Amino acid sequence: QLQLVESGGGLVQPGGSLRLSCAASGFTLDHYAIGWFRQAPGKEREGVSCIGSSGGSTNYADSMKGRFTISRDNANNTVYLQMNSLKPEDTAVYYCAADSSGLCVQAVFSSWGQGTQVTVSS
């Protein structure tokens, strides 16, 4: 059974940093594109970033460009989301998801983690 587990969330002050991890079990990540999404209270889920199976292709939502960096360590079956210069509006539950095509373009994310809470507040 495919399973994704997010970790690394927490409470951070504005301007601070967090690194989220998305670890896979039951399958190897190296053939999958991995996306990060977030959902804030009362808002729809939005895409944050995606990385292709080889790691050579990445994309970001406009509001995250220059602040967030997605990366993957296929040897450790983990994808990371480094978040810098965090703002209160980044507060949300962050989820990772896997797409078996390996491509972020037109990805269909069929396996999802349970999410990790990120709270940015002073």
Description:
The structure is a single chain. The chain starts with a strand and ends with a strand. The strands form two sheets. Strands 2, 4, 5, 6, 9, 10 and 11 form a seven-stranded mixed beta sheet that branches. A four-stranded antiparallel beta sheet has the order 1-3-8-7, with no helix packed on it. The chain is mainly beta and 122 residues long. The mean pLDDT is 95. It has strands at 3-7, 10-12, 18-25, 33-39, 46-51, 58-60, 68-73, 78-83, 92-99, 111-112, 116-120.
Estimate the mean pLDDT confidence. 95
Number of beta-strand segments = 11
Largest sheet: 7 strands, mixed
Strand proportion:
over 45%
Amino-to-carboxy terminus distance = 40 Å
Structural class: mainly beta
N-to-C series of helices and strands: EEEEEEEEEEE
Q: What's the alpha carbon Rg, rounded to whole Å? A: 13 Å
Low-confidence stretches: none
Query: How large is the count of helical segments?
Result: 0
| Percent of residues in helices | under 10%
**Coarse morphology:** globular
Identify the notable features of this structure and list them briefly.
mainly beta; 7-stranded mixed β-sheet; 4-stranded antiparallel β-sheet; globular
Summarize the structure.
The chain has strands at 3-7, 10-12, 18-25, 33-39, 46-51, 58-60, 68-73, 78-83, 92-99, 111-112, 116-120. The protein is an all-beta fold.
